Amino acid sequence: MSDAAGIGIVAEFEPGRPRIEREFAERLDRAVARGRDYLLSLQHQEGYWLGELEADTTLESDYIFFLHLVGRAEPDRLRKLANYIRARQLPDGGWSIYPDGPSELNATVKGWVALRLAGDAPDSPHLARAARCVRDLGGLERTNSFTRFYLALAGVIGWDMVPAIVPELMLLPSWFPINLYEASSWTRGIVVPLMILWARKPLWRLPVPLDIEPLFRNPSQRRAALEWGAKPISWRNVFLAVDRALKWRERFPRKLLRRRALEAAERWMREHLERSDGLAAIFPGIVNSIFALMAMGQGPEDPLTAREMKHLAEFEIAEGDTIRLQPCLSPLWDTCIAMVSLEEAGLGSNHPAILRAADWILNRQVLGPGDWQEKAKAAPGGWAFEFRNDFYPDVDDTAFVLMALRRVAHPDSDRLQHAIRRGLAWLVGMQNRNGGWGAFDKDNERRLLTQTPFADHNAMIDPATADVTARVLECLGLMGWPKTHEVIQRAYRFLQNDQTQEGAWYGRWGVNYVYGTSGVLRAFEAAGLAAGNPSRRGAEWLRSVQNPDGGFGESPASYDDPSLKGRGPSTASQTAWGLIGLLAAGATEDAATVRAAEYLLETQTSEGGWEEQQFTGTGFPSVFYLRYHLYRNSFPVYALARYRNRIAGTILPEGTQLLPHELTKNGA
Question: Residues in the chain with pLDDT < 50?
């Protein structure tokens, strides 16, 4: 396709509207065409898109530990994993959890342990620096509970340093304030296997002796993480008292209800290993389930254990002399975002690439039971993030899928419409009492649980958030739901109440306020609610944090320091979000909008993509961050295409091709 194709689409404007310079319009048109074609070239033959999901080195470190415990520590594999970890060590000896971030305690402890297991000498300069950094950050005694749990499995530390995660929690009824389904879905997947391990307490000796004394800041205070809180009367201290009572109970050989509880935990885990690519289809859930299976007597050669180990190995990426790990795979999410971007870029609603993607997505609608039904009575109909994770469809993916499918001219229209209706019914059925939506569960907001000793992964619950609520609101608006509908009005009130004093919205699943604010503004536009004061204030906030180069950027540090809202080096994905938000608020001819578009135009590569090294995705705020490698391509294409369509005075009808050009077989 010629770069000149499509020139002139902005030639005609309504009387009195300012004209956009022709050269700028032509550049915009060419950039959209290049970005669209490059995105098309990344599609897999089966119809899906799948970009790498990059995380910090805690995964590689945990994997080295895991391979030793399961007896699969092949030297070449260890060497490549260790190479990756060493290459990311910071000058102060530590490891960070996002690029340009400071050294983080748990990542540094895990890095030290992994490299020792890989054969590095404890007195080597890089490990000596790492140990010193651990002590400076508070010492091993201040690590989170899951870090200490793993070390206890190998007998490196005592179980007294680990919070009690007893299987009797499985027996607590749904009416009790604390029960399994008041915890978030990912917590369930991580913690239920740990219940089995806590009860059985296996001891798997490491082949490499570890002297971890150099990692303690104060060896006499090994239980520092479980010390009483400063306030004598607090929920933290209540839970710590319960923790001590449970550990006292462990001294007795006979424990009331232990067998029944352990059977319930084992049954739950086995059930959830089916209809999924590993427990919850995420790294920690799979690792913990393998450990639990081994503790139950099913070693690495057992068919079920071997299957789960195969799922885990699928997260490996070998490159050169390194191996790195992904926390999970994101095909559904990557595919629906790519589809929406290509549709906005003018790709026909019956284009082969769109139809292949739609078929692939339709085949993955979750039509069986899942955990969400413990609280929501919605019939199945959602979609899950990964290839197969049927117990855990999520609201964000489902809303984005529906927005992608709504423009598709599928030859089997009955099948498409039936899937959309089921998806919408599931989505609406997941609305919380407060009008918002969480990610995986309904009304999963029991904040009391965040005070438990093993809640230090900072994601014990799954409350309604602005970004997920905005996605559903946008979806419903695009589906034609009137803004007066009760479901939409409740969501609107939730978002009004959730807006910050500055005018921004928090981003739970993307970094951070730029992501949240952009999503809410787009939702207000789609739902016909953009004329209100919240939308105006949101756009003003975006203008106030735009970088001098025209881009937008925000560091994960803003989760810990609110003064850093919207502050950070410009990135392609965050600039796209900023541009999308400004356009949604009606700032089509605003200088800030033009500058954001200019940034994306000037930073596009010759092949049609963008570069981005920063982590702009969020797993657990303050704990775990992500880099979605397709974000830097999909979102800029959508943003530039939307801007081009807007300045053309064109709102695309369903299925319209704005660029009616012949596409090659490869989409080029």
Answer: 1-19, 650-668
Q: Is 136 a catalytic residue?
A: no
Question: Among residues 269, 282, 337, 328, which one has the least CA distance to residue 42?
Answer: 337
pLDDT of residue 253: 84
DSSP assignment of 267-302 equals: HHHHHHHTTBSSGGGSHHHHHHHHHHHHHTT--TTS
Q: What would the two tokens of residue 663 be?
A: 């596409």
d(CA 358, CA 349): 10
* Spatial contact of 613 and 98, defined as CB atoms under 8 Å apart: no
Q: Which of 56, 359, 396, 467 does the annotation list as catalytic?
A: 396
pLDDT of amino acid 649: 53
> For the chain, which domains are there?
1-41+499-652 (1.50.10.20), 48-54+329-443 (no CATH), 56-217+229-325 (1.50.10.20)
**Amino acid of residue 348:** G
Pairwise CA distance, residues 502 & 512, whole Å? 14
Number of neighbours of residue 74 by Cβ within 10 angstroms: 9
Length of the chain: 668
pTM, rounded to two decimals? 0.92
Distance in angstroms (rounded) separating the CA atoms of residues 196 and 426: 33
DSSP assigned state of 652 = P
Residues 6+ apart with CB under 8 A from 176: none
Query: In Å, what is the CA distance from 549 to each residue of 131, 579, 600, 619?
Result: 40, 14, 10, 29
